[in-house]
Specification:
Blueprint: E1 9-13, H1 18-29, E2 33-38, H2 41-53, E3 60-63, H3 69-83, E4 88-91, H4 106-134, E5 137-142, H5 146-149, H6 155-174, E6 180-187, H7 193-201, H8 207-211, H9 221-232, E7 243-246
Helix pairs in contact: 1-9, 3-4, 4-6
Protein name: 2,3-dihydroxy-2,3-dihydro-p-cumate dehydrogenase
GO molecular function: oxidoreductase activity
InterPro entries: NAD(P)-bd_dom_sf, Sc_DH/Rdtase_CS, SDR_fam
């Protein structure tokens, strides 16, 4: 076990699977006190059990719909109640409903915004209060490289993730002198379990999203998690208000 985050308390949202679960494991391996949250309680508990089985401290599990202000508030409160502080918030909860814009319904549009923007907004609103009082904090949002390069079928998703990007820049300036940094990690297509399943069923369905990546492959989940951990670390103390792409070159500069 490493010691990079020993004694620090970390909240990771959307941690029941995929990128969020990998991010949680990275922090656990580095010694953090973890609170993990997701709407999928069963899978979230399984991730916590796997982390404990690896020899790390078992995360505190807080399941619920983070697009609700009261649920988001209870997750942040849980970090303080269990560990006395909150040092790092990773806003990973999300999930796109990727389809042509005119195929969306009012419900799918609302769900896309709720999952990706309101989850991050409410968790951050509660977290910043705690961090400001302590004079220290790291907030890392998971954004999307598609906001920059405009992928097919991503208009609604980009509306939500674009808000996540923009929120970070405003917060970074507002709280820069409170010891709080706010950044975004923006991946391209990532080799998640969901992407693997789609690829097995329909090999050509996602190829156009891979084709825009100069390296010719999706990102690995560990590659995304590593950037999150850097931005959450004390080493990144002078990095704030940035959208950093982990994208194999699909956008540059």
């Amino acid at each position: 076990m490493g010691s990079r985050f020993d004694g620090q308390t970390v909240v990771v949202t959307g941690a029941a699977s995929g990128i969020g679960a990998v991010i949680a494991r990275h922090f656990a391996d580095a010694g953090a006190n973890l609170v993990v949250s997701d709407i999928e309680e069963g899978r979230l508990g399984a991730v916590a059990d796997e982390i404990a089985a690896s020899g790390a401290r078992r995360p505190v599990v807080k399941a619920g719909d983070l697009s609700r202000e009261d649920v988001a508030g209870s997750v942040i409160k849980s970090a303080v109640d269990n560990f006395g502080a909150l040092d790092i918030l990773v806003n990973n909860a999300g999930g796109g409903i990727i389809k042509p814009f005119l195929d969306h319904t009012p419900d799918t549009l609302r769900t896309t915004i709720d999952r990706n923007l309101w989850t991050a907004l409410w968790c951050t609103w509660h977290a910043v209060k705690v961090m400001k009082a302590r004079g220290y904090g790291r907030i890392v949002n998971i954004g999307a490289d598609s906001v920059r390069n405009g992928l097919w079928d991503h208009a609604a998703y980009n509306a939500a993730k674009g808000g996540v990007h923009a929120m970070a820049t405003g917060l970074a300036r507002e709280f820069a002198r409170d010891g709080i940094t706010v950044n975004v990690v923006a991946p391209c297509i990532v080799e998640t379990p969901q992407v693997k399943q789609i690829t097995l069923k329909a090999p050509k369905a996602l190829q156009r999203f891979v084709d825009v990546v100069p390296m010719g492959r999706p990102a690995e989940m560990d590659e995304v998690a590593s950037m999150v951990c850097y931005l959450a670390s004390k080493e990144a103390s002078f990095v704030t208000g940035q959208v950093i792409s982990v994208n194999g070159g699909s956008t540059m500069l």
